[in-house]
């Protein structure tokens, strides 16, 4: 998964932060997701569906409060992930269930990740987009909605 992944893409820490982060009025720094990865990080228009295919295995780096997933084992460089997000690792399986009633503004999207944060991208990414907020739905909500189930990884 770490093949070809250079966390700062050959930049010094200062160069990387200058190019890929934004700073708030109180001095806090965060990733410039909207400026660096518009369209939720998709390269072009993603495909849309109403479910995760049954038995599709996806994984996630980071907490389940985030919404981005990739096919299990997709290299970090292809996910175009900034450094420091790979603190937790989770594996999921699609249930094949459609988006539940009452979640009419949710849509499952998937497609290649664009080049961003100095990484080449190109790996497939999956999200459930909340069309009312234009943001990915957190994985923890997708589990509650029974669209995904978290599975144990073999040791």
TrEMBL record:
Alphabetical list of InterPro entries matching this protein: TNT
Pfam family, one: TNT
Top-rank taxon: Bacteria
Gene Ontology MF: a single term: NADP+ nucleosidase activity
Domain TNT stretches: 55-151
Name of the featured protein: DUF4237 domain-containing protein
Phylogenetic lineage: Bacteria, Bacillati, Actinomycetota, Actinomycetes, Mycobacteriales
